[in-house]
């Protein structure tokens, strides 16, 4: 009986969570007069692809996709690379100021990134990086949670592996790339996927750092879909669905790794 109740509650919760997505998707296939018509219409009377055709032919969505792909991929590669190196150094190396650096990383984890947006904008402006890929990428490289996760897992690697490799003449880079990282490829993949998704979905900073259509990310570009006679809900939802499509595909393909990364982040925060 309890199992039936739990299953029913789970299905009900899933339906409630999925309904807005279904409603948005099905609305993109409706003519505008059906969308604004009073009442609830769960299925279009007449299917149309005009909203998608309009977005694909009259907007710069292709350019926005490229900008998002380049910046998100760059953020992912740089964040994972820097975090792996920093986590290894703090975990395995003894150097002056090690505890201070670790304390700064932990402290930066407590500062919300939006609180630094004015500072970021001033710095990017001084570097002349406004309306550039570098200006979008640089502030996103602050990822203390990734360093913390790597450090925790490197701490758990048995010292025997390090000592054996050191006796064979391995240097620190060889230790990191041939021993420590191969033992944590699952963690690296999970962190890379969730970093990419977060960078792709980011809106606030790209919105502030970019003012020209040709440099906008997809999340910012969707705000530029206008209609001469006001809001066009079908077109707005169509471009929103196209913007979310790559992330949805990544999540569906790498669902286990994404879930693992979320659990790791939640465990660190807890």
Provide structural commentary.
The chain is globular. It has helices at residues 2-27, 32-35, 50-58, 61-92, 98-109, 117-126, 133-137, 144-155, 159-167, 172-180, 185-201, 204-209, 218-221, 233-253, 255-269. The two termini are 33 Å apart. The protein folds into 2 domains: 1-48, no CATH class; 52-269, MetI-like fold (Orthogonal Bundle). It is mostly helical. Helix 4 crosses helix 8. Helices cover 71% and strands 0% of the residues.
User: Runs with pLDDT <50, length 5+?
Assistant: none
State the oligomer.
single chain
Superfamily at the CATH H level of the largest domain? MetI-like
Percent helix: over 70%
Global morphology: globular
CATH architectural category of the largest domain = Orthogonal Bundle
Question: Cα-atom Rg, whole angstroms?
Answer: 23 Å
Characterize the largest beta sheet: strand count, sense, and whether it forms a barrel: none
Find the count of extended strands (DSSP E, 2+ residues). 0
SSE string, helices as H and strands as E: HHHHHHHHHHHHHHH
In short:
The protein has 270 residues and is mostly helical.
Feature tags:
about 270 residues; mainly alpha; MetI-like fold
Break the fold down into its secondary structure elements and pairings.
Blueprint (H helix, E strand, L loop, with lengths): L1 H26 L4 H4 L14 H9 L2 H32 L5 H12 L7 H10 L6 H5 L6 H12 L3 H9 L4 H9 L4 H17 L2 H6 L8 H4 L11 H21 L1 H15 L1
Helix pairs in contact: 3-14, 4-8, 4-11, 5-8, 11-14, 11-15
């Amino acid at each position: 009986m309890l199992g039936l109740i739990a299953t029913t509650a789970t299905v009900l919760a899933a339906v409630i969570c999925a309904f807005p997505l279904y409603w948005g998707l099905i609305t993109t296939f409706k003519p505008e007069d059906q969308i604004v018509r009073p009442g609830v219409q769960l299925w279009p009377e007449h299917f149309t692809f005009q909203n998608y055709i309009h977005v694909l032919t009259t907007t710069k969505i292709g350019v926005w996709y490229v900008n998002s792909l380049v910046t998100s991929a760059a953020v992912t590669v740089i964040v994972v690379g820097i975090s792996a190196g920093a986590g290894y150094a703090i975990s395995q190396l003894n150097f002056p100021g090690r505890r201070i650096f670790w304390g700064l990383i932990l402290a930066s984890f407590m500062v919300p990134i939006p609180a630094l947006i004015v500072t970021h904008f001033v710095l990017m402006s001084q570097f002349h990086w406004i309306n550039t890929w570098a200006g979008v990428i640089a502030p996103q490289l602050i990822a203390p949670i990734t360093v913390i996760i790597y450090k925790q897992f490197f701490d758990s690697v048995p010292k025997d592996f390090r000592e054996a490799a050191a006796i064979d003449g391995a240097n620190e880079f060889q230790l990191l790339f041939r021993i420590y990282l191969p033992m944590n490829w699952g963690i690296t993949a999970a962190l890379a996927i969730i970093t990419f998704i977060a960078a792709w979905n980011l809106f606030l900073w790209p919105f502030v750092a970019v003012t020209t259509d040709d440099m906008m990310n997809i999340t910012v570009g969707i705000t530029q879909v206008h209609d001469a006679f006001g809001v066009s809900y079908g077109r707005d939802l169509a471009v929103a669905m196209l913007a979310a499509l790559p992330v949805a595909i990544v999540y569906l393909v790498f669902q286990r790794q994404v879930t693992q990364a979320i659990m790791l982040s939640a465990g660190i925060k807890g």
